[in-house]
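Record type: monomer structure entry
Structure origin: computed from sequence
Chain ID: A
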Amino acid sequence: MSKYILMLNPQGGALTSDDKIEGSNLISVVLLTQNSLTPIYQPPHQVMSSIPKEISREIIVVHYNFANGTGFIDKTLGSTNHDDQNTNKRVLHVKVEGEFASAVMKGIELSVGKFILVMDADHPYSQEIIPELIKELIANPNYVIVVSRFVKGACVPRKPFIHSVISKVARIIAKYGLKVTNVEDPMSRCFAFSRHVVKDIRFEGKGKEALLEILVKINYNKNKNIEVKEIPIKHQGTPVTKKINFNRILNYSRAVWLLYRHGRKSKELQNDSDIAEQKRHKSVLFLSKAGRFFTVGISGFIVNYLVSFLLANVVSNVWYLQATLVGIIVSITTNFLLNKVWTFEDRDFSIKHSLRQYMSFLALCTLGAVIQLLLVFLFVEYSHIQYGISLVMAVCVASLGNFLLNKKITFGEKIWE
């Protein structure tokens, strides 16, 4: 997957100040679509007509998920550039490789406006949304204006239960994991901001979470005093509900992980070589401990099998279920001790401290088993993935979650070290 580093200023690695951009007092509308020709719901001519006539505007239509098309401006799609004394209108089509966030970054990079409005053109927003966004943005230039599904007055079709649950979990992760507490809909695909709001901030377009990345990196920029204002969404039609699949969940998890690493505890580094060196050092430590943790897990499986088999076949009067239970307890105990001593190198063996860690380890192992069962059920019943593949994916997710939670909660380490 391609990525874009938003660098309109080659030396500074970020957006340039709007006062250095000629003709910047206009609205730049970035329309994102997967349609190879023109968006179905928000075509450029309709968006153009929705902007008040007294405001100069440009429309940048970014067609994303086009292999080998990154940065290619397609003149055959009707790109125009019209200027006269009273108006400044431009429609630009560009094809890019990569997901939604990559397309957002490319659209912003090509824009010249003082105000930037980003919209998923494959979504049936009402015609009132654009004028309302522009009105709020001009009145509040130091705000990020978000079209929200979760504020009072929002009108959205009812989603299936599973979609609602997953959406809620994603918002909880953003709120408590990434500290994005000032917005109810951090995954919105329609938002607007002034160019200076993202000045001197480095963005990487990855996956689908463009707004979430912008909010996280604005929050962690000490020189910014930016607030968020949400306006309720209103649909002019019924959007197609996309199936929740493993790739979407994995992409969101990856985006959250990368943003978490960026987090508020990250140090301000001087140059790209320092950044690369720090990432490489932390990656080695993280992968080393992950490798040890999963090696211990394999040893636990062997211990479980041997203890259960020996008790059931060698020791008389032991029921096979009793033998299995003892095998589980012994394997959990050996896993805990090996992880404490070898994986996380914890040498505090005081009774109170060790007992607390053991109970935490036991609880998280139980939670991991529940997560694995739930994921298998969701993948098989709702995503219609074969059981064998579903089981492998569920085991991978549950095992990774088990490692991260034990690293953070049981042994009190930072996630990325």
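Annotation 1: Residues 143 and 227 are 5 Å apart (CA to CA).
Annotation 2: The first strand starts at residue 4 and ends at 5.
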